[in-house]
Write a structure and sequence with these properties.
- This protein is α/β, with parallel strands linked by helices.
- The chain has 3 helices and 7 strands; from the N terminus they run βααββββαββ.
- Strands 5-4-3-7-6 form a 5-stranded mixed beta sheet. Strands 1-2 form a two-stranded parallel sheet.
- Strand 6 and strand 7 form a beta hairpin.
- The longest helix is centred in the first third of the chain and has 30 residues.
- The protein starts with 5 loop residues before the first strand and ends in a 10-residue tail after the last strand.
Length: 168
C-alpha cells in the first residue's frame, strides 16, 4: 500500500463524500452569510462575532481539504484481495484475551474509518499491526500503552459476515 493511500469501505467513502458535499453546499453558504452579518456590525477589528465566524470558516475549509485528500487517495476494501486464512485489512477477527478469558471481535479497517466504540480498529493500531498476517490458533503478545495484551486468534471472518461484533 502506498503511504498516501487511504483504505475505505464503500460505505465509508460514501459518508466522506456526503460530508464533503454538505460542507461545500450548506456550511460554506451559512458561514458566508454570518460573515456578511458580522461585517454589518461595523469595525471588524474588535468584532468578536466576526473573529469567531472567520475561525469557523478556517476550520471548515481545512476539513474540506482533508476530505478531498482522503477521497482522492481512497482505495476501496473491495479492491484489496483478502485471504481469510490470515488477519488482514478488510476482515474481522475473533480473539480470546488469554489473561481475562474474554472473547473479543474487531473489524480491521483503514484509519479513516476506525471507531473503537464500534470495535473497528485501524490497521495502523498496535493491536491490528500485531494481528496482521497471523492465522487461526496464533498466540500473540501486543505491547500497548497500558501494558502487554495476550491474544489467541480464534477466527478470521469477512468484514460483512452476519455475526455482529462482540462487545469489548
Amino acid at each position: 500500500m502506498q503511504p498516501n493511500q487511504v483504505i475505505l469501505s464503500a460505505e465509508g467513502l460514501k459518508k466522506l463524500e456526503q460530508e464533503l458535499e454538505h460542507l461545500k453546499s450548506v456550511r460554506r453558504r451559512e458561514i458566508a452569510e454570518r460573515i456578511k452579518q458580522a461585517r454589518e456590525f461595523g469595525d471588524i477589528t474588535e468584532n468578536s462575532e466576526y473573529e469567531n465566524v472567520k475561525n469557523e470558516q478556517a476550520f471548515v475549509e481545512g476539513r474540506i481539504l482533508t476530505l478531498e485528500r482522503l477521497i482522492r487517495n481512497a482505495v476501496l476494501l473491495d479492491e484489496i484481495p483478502v485471504n481469510y486464512d490470515t488477519v488482514g485489512v478488510g476482515c474481522r477477527v475473533r480473539l480470546e484475551d488469554l489473561d481475562r478469558g474474554q472473547i473479543l471481535e474487531y473489524a480491521i479497517v483503514g484509519s479513516a474509518e476506525a471507531d473503537p466504540r464500534e470495535n473497528r480498529i485501524s490497521n495502523e493500531s498496535p493491536v491490528a499491526r500485531a494481528l496482521l498476517g497471523h492465522g487461526v490458533g496464533a498466540e500473540l503478545e501486543v505491547l500497548v500503552p497500558a501494558g502487554t495484551l495476550r491474544y489467541r486468534i480464534l477466527e478470521v471472518l469477512p468484514l460483512n459476515s452476519p455475526r455482529s461484533p462482540t462487545q469489548v
